[in-house]
Amino acid sequence: MSILDNLRQVKRELLDEKHPLESENIQFRKIYAIGYAMLVCVNGYPSEMAKDVLKKQISLLDLPAEFRKLAISAALEADSQTIQTLLQTLQNEKHKYIFMLDLYDYAQKDRKITEKEQELLILFEELLQFSYEEVHFIRGFRLAMLKKDTEVATKVVQQAFEQHVSIPLKELVYFLAGFEYQERLMQMTLLAGQKKKLGYATYLNGEVVVGKGAELDLNGMKVTFGNNAAIIVEGGTLLADGAQFIASLDANKTMLSLRDIGLTKIRDTHFFGANNVRAIEMVNAKVELDTCSFEKCFDEERGGAIYFTNSDHFVLRNCVFEHNSTLGKGGSMYIAGTEARHMKKLDFFSRITGKIQKVKLVMEGCHFKESRAEMSGALHTYDADMIIHNTTFDHCTSRAGGAAIDTLNCSISAGGNSFIKCKAGLSEAVVILGNTKGASESAIGKFEHCEPKNFIMH
């Protein structure tokens, strides 16, 4: 690591790291520190190295540095009353788990536990009245700490949950840097009347299908998509406000599909495609997205982040699209009514009966940044009535067609939009094609340093 990297690491260790119990009252923290010092002193008067560890623990508990000497003295002279006071202080389940993990963390710092340390640890497990399942969790997680293995930690936590052990989940990262528990969810179908609500961050393998009359509540959780993973809502209800859709490098399907649904509103939700998969595809759906973000989403053919068609209501407000791309049309979004030629060739749209339907698109206060495509760097629209206001297209690029926008057979109402350094290889920043109404360069918005030109209408 560089000098700066080392300085940042030391800053994190000295200033940023906080003990999970540093906000407890000072009397609690003093008694806790004395309990910790019992292990430090169990082999006799502590070495300089052991005293340094205790000094750091005192600091992390936000106690005065001079309390180290008092903690050592109290630990060496500890009698039954001292121990009883400690046990009474550690009645809360969370406090007990943190205390034991703290002790194991110290005992195995030198990768070995002495006989006296081992006996003290076992005695505390018994005196704190842990059940067999709780002890199994503590020892399993201490092994994960020793190995610095988050996969082992995940398995230990999963087993504990299955045995109804109450775990201080968010505090575990203090003992194992980078640990984030993710519940494993395999393929499932929710039928009419069934509901599922996520309780933890979730790693998804396989498809979760939400049928008509069923409900999936993501509960604001982070959902990571693995191999063949997707959430498919077919007539059911999705509650996704505040959630995160994160594609792994194994992801190979559009993360969220909305089919045959009534009005669905999604707010404050983040989609990360890992330059690997699309965020959302929608058919026969009414959807409103508010303050959502789409980052590094990708599709090979159409709509890097969003594919919306055979639907008549799509509203986006204050959404951000950043570094999305496609090898085809619409780096961030592809929006098409039922007249799009390619649609009649797709099995996905086999339920389309031939009824001609235009998309009604409203986009307000959105931002497209560095969207890329073969054609239509940010937005490709076919057969749509569009209202686009106060939206920014920033450094969007394409080889053919519009660097930012292409339209065909659309109507446009626009105002307050900005096009900044959008660059097309063979055309302009905005391209208006066949039968589009209401468009002009001055009406579309302001252009800054776009190449080769700003606007073309055929």
Under CATH, the topology of the largest domain can be stated as Pectate Lyase C-like
What spatial form do the alpha-carbon principal axes imply? elongated
Strand % is 25-35%
Rg on CA atoms, Å: 29 Å
CATH class type of the largest domain: Mainly Beta
What are the low-pLDDT stretches, counting only 5+ consecutive residues below 50?
346-353
Largest sheet: 15 strands, parallel
- End-to-end separation: 57 Å
Notes on the structure:
The protein has 2 domains: 119 residues, TerB-like (Orthogonal Bundle); 275 residues, 3 Solenoid (Pectate Lyase C-like), CATH 2.160.20. About 2% of the residues have low confidence. The strands form 4 sheets. The protein has a 15-stranded parallel beta sheet that branches. The chain starts with a helix and ends with a strand. Helices cover 27% and strands 31% of the residues. It is elongated and about 90 Å long. It contains 10 helices and 34 strands. The longest helix is centred in the N-terminal third of the chain and has 16 residues. It has 458 residues and is an alpha/beta fold.
